[in-house]
Amino acid sequence: MSSSDTKSITVIGSGLIGRSWAMVFASGGYRVKIYDNQPGQAAKAITEIRSQLEELEEAHMLRGELTAMQQLTLLSSYDDLAQALEGAFFVQECVFEQLEVKQSVFQDIECLVGKDVILSSSTSCLVPSNVFSKVQNRSRCLVSHPVNPPYYVKLVELIPHPETEATVMDTTHAVMTKVGQAPVRLKREIDGFALNRVQAAIIAESWRLVQGGVISVKDIDLVMSEGLGMRYAFIGPMETMHLNAPEGLEDYMKRYGEGITRVLNSFGPVPNFFGDGAESIVNEMCELIPSDQQHLSARRERRDQLLMGLAKLKKDH
Known about the structure:
- This protein is about 50% helix and about 15% strand.
- With about 325 residues, the chain is of the alpha/beta class.
- The chain has 2 domains: about 5-185, NAD(P)-binding Rossmann-like Domain (Rossmann fold); about 195-235 and about 270-315, N-(1-d-carboxylethyl)-l-norvaline Dehydrogenase, domain 2 (Orthogonal Bundle), CATH 1.10.1040.10.
- It has an 8-stranded mixed beta sheet, sandwiched between helices.
- Helix 10 packs across helix 11 (about 250-265).
- The chain is globular.
- The two termini are about 30 Å apart.
- One of its GO terms (biological process) is fatty acid metabolic process.
């Protein structure tokens, strides 16, 4: 890949995820063209990004080797799709999580770009074969699923369409690595991808334990934040098992495999997340953190500050 200073990436959609992607790509030195079909929204997004980059620079948490001002000069806004796509080698779509909307957007994009331009979707729950079903050349299509907020949580899942060429996966992996993300490749598409499937398993058992009167909402969150999450922030479940037995993973399974199987067999059915049974859990959560915008915004800001600190710690180590 040639030097990124002559390469352009187009971000479609200027909402939270679109702005985050724009900041990530600019931090890696790419020119980023932001498009939004609502007039003036893309320009407004750059104004918001300017404020964020200046705050990050002041906090010494700005990503990449360029200053905030240098990164801002790489950003441009467009209300015209054709102009936004001109010269781009990579397109990152970040529109509403609605299948028909995404399908329509990619149909429009395909008519305006060359056959070698990579088309990437930020969808979190729609599989590539559905998202790109109306695209003619699907060999250059994939899903790049970020974790919110992408600027602080670097994981991005790369999920191929059944027709995606290996070189497209390789190029996207290289781009994501260059801009400081932590890309992982799925070998095939699957509902929920990897992150959301693991997250769903945690949600389900946490919900069952609270609903079954075993533990409180507050304490099940502590199980993760002060227990599993402490080590999972640096090493995953496979390495955790490998390190937690004197002779590694095989030894771990000899020691604990039967117990894990017994516990798994005791799991109940998928919980009902709605109705009367769910109301008490929602109420318990809202007693801890009220669901009005003032309290939620404050906790989100706290979350992002903590993630920023954790990201810095991981970078320094």
